[in-house]
Fold these 2 entries.
Entry 1:
Amino acid sequence: MSSSPQPARKPSAKPAAKPSAKPSAKPARKPARGPGGKPLLIGAGVVAAALLLGFASYTATRPDDSPSAGGGPAAPAEVSADPQSGAYAELEKLARREAKDPLAVGRADAPVVMVEYADFKCGFCGKFARDTEPELIEKYVERGDLRIEWRNFPIFGEESETAARGAWAAGRQGRFWQFHAAAYADGAKEKGFAADRVKALAKEAGVPDAGRFARDLDSDEARASVKRDQDEAYGLGATSTPSFLVNGRPIAGAQPMSAFTQAIESALAAAGSGGKPSEKAGR
């Protein structure tokens, strides 16, 4: 398995290349949906968290931000809402925990769920997928502490949408994470994600039935699935990729490993102490 508001935050200089973390044509935003596709009832605390996530999404990767070949990230990005407001608890409900979800890795009953909203054309998303996610899987997913749930959040136009549908179609044949790895490999996004290229990536990912993949890629079901994820992200106020929720706690950008470790350790401590983080959490 493997998986940037196009963010990426590492303690280093800002990227030299031009950023690109905002949708060129922003789809209409709709209310976030909870499990089963039902509209999520957003309380005041969730609205506050959504506003924070949206703000951090923008500041972590302003329009046109993109990583340079060896550069570091853009600006700041971890976001936090007051847990007492109930925001975390409401946002935590967005974890679907579907045991057979092909776009997720880790136990459905893991104490911590990280939901990732990402785009295959996002350079910072690729950086997170290559540099950070494998470590999180080895350190937390494999021991049963963490589940990672992918959400397609295409914001860079038609090719982003095509790649998102391709990922979903690969998942129908149990090859989502292999497709994810191929699409985020170094240099992959520079080749674009036109339909023929996405089909080539599916072959590279070992998708067994090319005919079925082609049909699924163009299906109404694929479009509906991608739209559901996209609507959920926009409903949260996310404006760039990647954006994350760790047991409901918003994090914007491809942050360094330490930012995710702190959030996950804090969530584990809270889960093990009746919802109250221990003093050692996040250290």
Entry 2:
Amino acid sequence: MTTKLSVNVNAIAQLRNRRDLPWPSVVGLSRTALEAGAWGITVHPRPDERHVRRSDVQPLADLVAQYPDAEFNIEGYPDDRLMEIALEVHPHQVTLVPDDPAQATSDHGWDFRSQHNFLKPVVARLKGEGMRVSLFADADAETIAIAAETGADRAELYTGPYGATFDDDDAASKELDKLQAAAEIARDAGLGLNAGHDLTVANLPPLLARAPWIDEVSIGHGLTAEALEYGMAVAVERFRAACGEETSS
């Protein structure tokens, strides 16, 4: 199997919001990404709207609907606002993350032992409306299997600690060991698997060599940084190649 690429457009929206102008266009660059072969688009519409705004969500859903093979993924903490957005838009996938509104970015997975009873009815409601549900998870082989008990379809491995080892090969190897162990347990528990956070063209292939059954990676910051240097279409092709896809370049 080939791991699919979903482009997280939060950083694009954050750059736009610095001047409250219509550029860079979140919809326009998402279209470029899809035309370049991205599997999907991911958004995280936080309550403070510091990057993707609620008003961005429906236009992006409408855009993705123009590409029959593409998927729209909404992620966030399952408060009333996020649930309302999801039930209104009906994305293909909802990724639930344990974010506090004050966090700069997602930086840990769910505590599945203590939050199992909170997550289970949320997962059931979203799945009942036809949406796939993924739960953000630390690379913890001892607890990730509990995610399956919530009824979730997938777990998304938080790869931030691995991404932070970009200048330390020994530390990177240790983090890969943790990710591989958690990925194996998740697979054995019947969970599909996603991954995301601080993944790059350089560090993505070693991760996928350890866990080639990862279904999807969601990449924002690293891909946006590449887009500033190479352009969005080339950046998407570079990440698709890192995922093992054949590209035109």
